[in-house]
Amino acid sequence: MSRITREEVAKLAELARLDLPESELDEYAKQLEIILESVAKVGEVSTKDVKPMSHATGLVNVFREDVTKESLSRDEILRSAPATEDDRFRVPRILDEE
Amino acid sequence: MSTYDQAIKKYDPVLGLETHVELSTNSKMFCGCSTEFGADPNKQTCPTCLGLPGSLPVANAIGIESTIRIGLALNCSIASYSRFARKNYFYPDMPKDFQTSQYDEPLCSNGYLDVLVDTDEGTKTFRVEIERVHLEEDTGKLTHAGGATGRIHGADYSLVDYNRAGIPLVEIVTKPVPDTGEYAPLVAKAYVTELRDLLRGLNVSDVRMEEGSLRCDVNLSLTPKGSKTWGTRTETKNVNSLRSVERAIRSEIERQSLELDKGNKIKQETRHFQEDTGTTRSGRSKVVAEEYRYFPEPDLVPIAPDKAWIEKLKKALPEQPSIRRTRLAKEWGFTDLEMRDVATLGGVDLIAQTIEQGTSPASARKWWAGELSGHASKADLELIDLKITPTDVARIDALVNEGKLTDKLARQVIEAVLNGEGNPDEVIKKRNLAVVSDDSALIPAIEAAIAANPDAAAKIREGKVQVVGVIVGAVMKTTGGSADAAKVRELVLKTLGQ
Amino acid sequence: MSDLTKLSAVELSGELSKGSVSAVEVTKAHLDRINSLDKSVQSFLHVDNAGALKQAEEVDKNRKENKKVSALAGVPLALKDVLTQKGIPTTCGSKILEGWIPPYDSTVVKNLKNAGIVILGKTNMDEFAMGSSTENSAYFPTKNPWDLTKIPGGSSGGSSAAVSAFFAPLGIGTDTGGSIRQPAAVTGIVGAKPSYGGVSRFGLVAFASSLDQAGPFARTVLDCAMLHEVMAGHDPLDSTSINQPVPDVVKAAQLQDVKGMKIGIIKELGGDGWQNGVLNRFNESVELLKSMGAQVKEISIPHSLYALATYYLIAPSEASSNLARFDGMRYGLRVDDGNLSAEEVMNKTREKGFGKEVKRRIMIGTYALSSGYYDAYYAQAQKVRALIAQDLTNAFKEVDVLISPTSPTTAWGLGERVNDPMAMYLADLATLPPSLAGIPAMSVPIGLADEDKLPVGLQIIAPFMNDDRMYRVGGAIEASLKTKWNGLLIDQAPALGGAK
């Protein structure tokens, strides 16, 4: 079981978009390590030829018909927004290009 | 020797294309919101496509069916068990901060599409192999405010409209296409053209590149001649017209070859095509390295299409565009070259629909591939995006044949229709463009012309019919060209007792 | 204590249909009790006084006009703040959703409204349902009405506390790894997690999509079954909803007979590390079931030993993705000084808006799904999950239901485990295997532990979509213990201060 370093915690936080304070990295590292050590126990089980189970229902092919339904009122959805402009959600400048 | 020719002499390009197609379903992929283009911002949204807490997706049956049909038309195998996966990354245009997509279990895989390209040794078929066809959801639309360019870079803030979020998007990914040499740009363009016609034939998408319902990313690498290992590839985004596909590849071949010539390495990166310069530019590198953490979407259940369903869809597929074109060329009496020109222009369906309205194939081709394609290229549009319908064209052609429009007038009518002034009949009425063939309207003009040209009139009366042109010309002048010259000639002769 | 708040849902239903009391009177009685006593329990995040009375008036009007109303029409209920109710704040116990007003009803709420059940308000919970004590609520911890220095269980501790404090005869919780059963057990009431897909998840703010399931709380098994019946049923808005008739849980709850039933004791759940008082009550229940004619035997679920590790990989992985949307762009909290980029706003909003346990789980999930770790963690966990489910399927070839203590201990002291995540996780040991398998399970009170005189629960587990079986066993035990105690266990709970 690999030890979780401060740097790894920082990287996880970056991926998960959490601006963790520097001062808390060590504490998180310690806690995550204990948890990861414990969950690593799944590795002890032999799972050769076992199909992963992603849900319990066994359902397949659940579709809806291609018909339109009434949308929400725009006022209602924009009311909860932190900022709006011109009937759109206003967000701060974006650095990453997609 | 041009930069391009030098590059091709030293390097072999390897192509790859990722095409995104917005399906033309009535409702979005995972909710019942309308997909109609051009609605007011955020009017077509609900808890699911806004990713509101607690909302859940349910897959649109036609979205699944259309994807399978595309796969079948591209000769793919259809998975017996397929799943949606979550592609996790944060971006303001993505309401859930993950995209519902497909990862290692796509609906369709391993197909191909053959395309024809004119080469120095005649027409050659290139086979473009298809890696996968999968289904995902589109993102919202960002508008960047402030800053000089309206682009993301330098903007003060951005505005998001989620009407587009959740519209079904099919991604068609080719395998790397080697051995196209100098024809790489043409093969790419022919592939996208062929794909567009195939999708249009399937009636699964509007395939309008300028509305974004067909979008292209181009991968390219160069391999030094004789080398066995492919070079580092770049991915160029925003390639959103057929012409741009060709230009983007050409410019990327040139750019990469110059870098390699200088002894530089090609950086594996995302680049952006710029319409204005026809070149690509480097995207800014990401703040966080890509790590999408794909896993099966637990809110959706697997897709397991049964064989009977697939067989049924296969049987109902329309004729492949290339086969259809061969058949139509024969029916219409077009040469191979004429037909390929028409296909490249995206005019096959338009011509077919014009012919259905009674126009002869030769005339239909003349209007679309001649007059109208000129207008399209001037406006940088596709033929289908011109604001004129096959019905309009057929009507104009009929009026010309009936002698009610001259070619010159017909061109004016076309211009007016393209300007949005109405259908041909409305335009003719509004602009008073019809050929004047009404005798009573012409008689005063003819009488005036005879009075103005007594010598010529006298000669005609004497039987020297050949001078009639003088009087006809005068009539045409006074009527501003709107008269039917043959009719005028007939009337002049009649008036002068011939 | 007002007499009306003492009554069960079934009793209230009887009075309401006789017309001896109005829905408004019933609702007022419960609101009065909440408004005077909840300051010591702190079970509600939001009490909807006006809205509840309006719903009650509607029910009374319908009754007066002789319109057909459902059996539970006019009966009040406490709703966990993780299910959306149009126009009513939904916070999930998190600061990141403070101020968010959902523009739509969850299917569960729609079903409640259709049945005329009066929703009194939204109850406290561990933030995003992550926890076993309700101390992870970003607002305040809820107290156990049995002992205000103890936890009420979690994550649905607000609802379990509200029902056990007689603030409402019915409550709704959600259960991902035990979040209904464990709070029910430690507050001495009944709580059930239906089969996965039995109750629609539409409008349930997701923690772990493949495990989350909403379910009922009540003080009696029959009340619980009646609410279960209202909540359950196929929903076309939830792709994982089961399109089958709801098992007849109400009839099963009324049978009060386990003669001939085969009951399996899960061998792995008990023994060292389990509180003696819990085990004593459990062993007595086993004897009781035998005396009622059930055939009881021990049965092994070998892979249940790995349930904790499996669960704490799968649930955080799904959570890391489900909770990504809380980014300050469209709703809820946004931390912005006006000069930040979108990326920085997301980072700061999430750092400030989420509590530590949520952040820990998001990071664990992010880790388990990352390339290079996916196969060893997430994919492996999904395989072990399949083995646990297979063990349970095999067990049900031999027995009709399985039983275990619901939780290894009784309610612990507030603050005792907050800095020790692993100790907190251990509370779910027995409830996790059925969660992973998606099968129904419930907790019924079986007495007080000798050491601390705090409630102990019995977990009853049934096969997929055979939810009725657990109600049959639960109903029979309850009837037998009721005779023995001359009332329900909850009647032994100390009256809250001021209510004496």
UniProtKB/TrEMBL annotation, chain A:
GO BP annotations listed: glutaminyl-tRNAGln biosynthesis via transamidation; regulation of translational fidelity
Database matches in Pfam families: GatC (PF02686)
InterPro entries documented for this protein: Asp/Glu-ADT_sf_sub_c (IPR036113), GatC (IPR003837)
HAMAP family, alphabetized: GatC (MF_00122)
NCBIfam families reported for this sequence: gatC
Protein name: Unannotated protein
